[in-house]
Specification:
Layout lengths: L1 H11 L14 H49 L6 H33 L7 E4 H18 L12 E4 L1 H17 L1
Helix pairs in contact: 2-3, 4-5
Length: about 180
């Protein structure tokens, strides 16, 4: 019981890598085993939460960086003409919409946790989805003197478009960075 007490105090302080080893087959032994199982599961949940926060931060940072960059360009007079202003405004709008989508994803995660989640099934034009993603990273690629060539076929899939776009966005952003 003293070992269980010490282990529970360590867990209360945030140490979830505690195990209680008791060589008994009675109630105390079963309690120690249940405690160790609980500590393992709580520790895994904490690791998953940290990973979620890191992923959400990454997902919010990418569109926010684009919004700030294009807004800065507009503010500094970086647009050559009205067409350029409209293009930059479109990117800002699209990226703000993506941010809103990420926030909706967070709400979706809470729905999943509550057992109330619903996936959207839409017909998605992959060519359009990919071209949109590439257009968002093109300015950064150009600044790095990276040329991008694509050969896209016309393909339509039935999927949750927002989730598919998010996966593509993460792939493109990681490719752009690394």
């Amino acid at each position: 019981l003293q070992r269980l007490t010490v282990a529970s105090q360590r867990m209360a302080e945030g140490d979830f890598d505690v195990r209680v080893s008791v060589d008994r087959r009675d109630e105390v032994g079963r309690l120690a085993q249940a405690f160790s199982t609980m500590a393992t599961r709580v520790g895994e949940t904490q690791r998953q939460m940290r990973a979620l926060v890191a992923n959400v931060s990454h997902d919010l940072k990418t569109p926010l960086t684009s919004i700030l960059g294009f807004a800065q360009a507009l503010r500094d007079g970086g647009a050559a003409d009205d067409t350029d202003v409209r293009r930059m405004g479109t990117v800002i709008h699209d990226e703000a919409s993506r941010l809103a989508g990420r926030l909706n994803d967070l709400l979706y995660l809470s729905e999943l946790e509550a057992g109330q989640a619903v996936l959207q099934r839409d017909e998605i034009d992959l060519r359009r989805l990919i071209e949109g993603g590439l257009a968002r990273i093109e300015p950064d690629l150009a600044a790095r003197h990276v040329a991008l060539r694509t050969e896209l076929a016309d393909v339509t899939v039935s999927a949750d478009g927002a989730k598919l776009e998010r996966a593509l966005e993460n792939l493109l952003d990681n490719a752009r960075k690394y």
